[in-house]
Amino acid sequence: MNLQTAPSAQRHVVCFYTDDDDLASVVAADLAERVRAGRPAVVIATAGHAAAFDAALTGLGVTDRASLVVLDAHETLGRIMRGDRPDPDLFEREVGTRVRQAAAGGDEVWAFGELVGLLWDAGNVGAALELETLWEVLARDVRFRLACGYPIVQGAGDDDVRQVCDLHTAVVGKEPLAAMPSPRPPVWVERREFEPDPTAPRAARRFVTGTLARSEPHVRDEAALVVTELATNAVIHAGTPFVVELERVDGVLRIAVADDAPGEPAPQPLQTDVGSGRGLVIISALARNWGVDRTATGGKLVWVELPV
Amino acid sequence: MNTHHDLMVTDDPRAVLDRPHPFHVAWLVDGDYAPVARQLVDRSIAAGRKTFAFGPLGGADLQALDGAATATADPAEIGLGGGPFDAAAMYATFHEQAALAREEGFAGFTVVADMDWLVPLAPTTADIVTFEAGLDRVVADLGASVVCAYRRRSFDATTLLGALAVHPTGVTADGEAPPFRLVAGGPTRWRLMGEVDLAVHDLFVAALRATAGDGRDLDISGLEFIDVAGMRAISRAAADEGPIVLHGAPRVFERAWKAAQFDSSGHVQLAS
User: For a disulfide at B193, which of B43, B92, B151, B222, Cβ 3.0-4.6 Å?
Assistant: First the structure.
């Protein structure tokens, strides 16, 4: 089974910017094209940026804006935060429902968001990254392209910037670093194929914990849970042989499970009654990052990065 | 050898004879049952314990033990009155007979059971696992000794694995150890050890059902792994059958449990 992924569409880009005009110059052209064609667009921006986009759309001759939804970023952020962290249920209520409504006609939604940028600007990098994950979760069952606006912040650490870049499929706008980080080769890679029977999750877990025999216990335990969930999903939902790949690179343990079945895993929104599908919610909580790609043979590859 | 509780991998059936009283043993029988059963009965009688030999009505092995044991019986008759399989009725019978044995001045109470008595009742695997898990608590409370002999020709591999999972001691000639054990606890009412995942999910759910209505304190400090479906099963069991207290939850369990918000209604308590 080939783990090579097909080229992915740029569905989640980050726009670094230094000033309002700078941001508008990057975003307005795409936004104008969408709105002029009557295609759905959701903009969550600060009042200043919303005004800049409005002026840009007017300058580009876009008068009919029926397909455009604009939300104030500060107000929306206030509604989705619980303490200093974004709340998944509040995010769904305030943002998810708006995006779903926009997507109800079947067309892919174009979205611009500054919620994470505001958290980033306030120095709450952890919350910014969690919010990015909530957007990724929403993307599992709603079709949209998301551009995230991040101000270039004086004193932002290279690691933080690198983490932000890693969460996105492409970077547009200003270069946030003097030189963009180049990927370092993995320290090691292990892979094994399994048949889709009920004992396969245990076998996959043995493979992973055996490979990580000299790692910290909490790393082994979290990796065991992650690979078991992915392998269980492969057995139950894909029903095809699947490959587990382990990769250690740059302080990150990457676990990937690839099967030959189409479709994407979708974490279920948390409910008050006990439902199914919470495995990916747990993975989202444990992982630094995770995602789903298509394999070259049309199957899917779910990858999870754990900090080590 | 299983590291959690005793699992003797041996083709020597006399291994069942060496357990110190009280014990609860699942013995997977490949060959002859009666000779070893007779030795068990004789040792129990010599120790002054009231000794029952259970088995299917009219079975030759049961008849062979008649006269050696204090009494021989088919549990389907004395426990169920010829009716359908009913775990609660069987537990009640154990309690009654243990009380009677004490009144009669016996030093203890032993049952040697040929589990072929179950066959005509056609219980499901889940029924058997739930029954045996609950029986382990009964046996521990009564300080009784029970040997449950399961013939491989009479029960499928999944049922046999489930039976091993809910007995503190197992004797089997082949090496398949149950990945998890759910047995009567000491300081807590129940102990869950080992690994719970897809391969044994249904067995785990059946074993967990036995803890309903019996003071559901569960020691999980020996739980090496449980998948999300297993956590969900605990959450559902608590919501449907009564609160559960988990003691000694491993760190990753606690973290995953809270992330998934499995227990927003408070039916499961994580005690330190």
Answer: B222
Closest CA to B232 of A116, A276, A202: A276
Interchain proximity B227–A272, CB inside 8 Å:
no
A198 three-state secondary structure: coil
Exposed/middle/buried for residue B94 (C-beta within 10 Å: 0-12, 13-18, 19+): buried
Q: Indicate the pTM of the whole model.
A: 0.69
- Is residue A94 within 8 A of residue A80, CB to CB? The reply is yes
State yes or no: pLDDT of B46 exceeds 90.
yes
Residues facing residue B202 across a β-bridge: none
B229 and A232 within 8 Å at the Cβ level: the answer is yes
B92-144 pLDDT per residue, tens:
999 999 999 999 999 999 999 999 999 999 999 999 999 999 999 999 999 99
**Using CB atoms and an 8 Å cut-off, which of residues 196-235 of chain B contact chain A?**
197-199, 225, 227-229, 232, 235
- Counting Cα atoms < 13 Å in the Cβ hemisphere of B12 gives 5
Nearest CA to B79 out of B55, B50, B44 is that of B55
Q: Which segments within A51-187 are labelled E, that is strand?
A: 68-72, 81-82, 85-86, 109-113, 144-151, 170-173
Contact state of A270 with B260 under an 8 Å Cβ cutoff: yes
The residue assigned the tokens 């804006």 is: A65
Element containing residue A160 per DSSP (H, E): helix A158-166
Biggest alpha carbon distance in chain B?
A: 61
SS3 content of chain B, % helix, strand, coil (to 5): 40, 25, 35
Chain B residues whose CB is inside 8 A of the A218 CB are 251-252
Task: Report yes or no: A63 at the B interface, CB cutoff 8 Å.
Answer: no
Spatial separation of the C-alpha atoms in residues A45 and A72, rounded to whole Å = 5
Nearest CB partner across the interface for A281, out of B235, B252, B260: B260
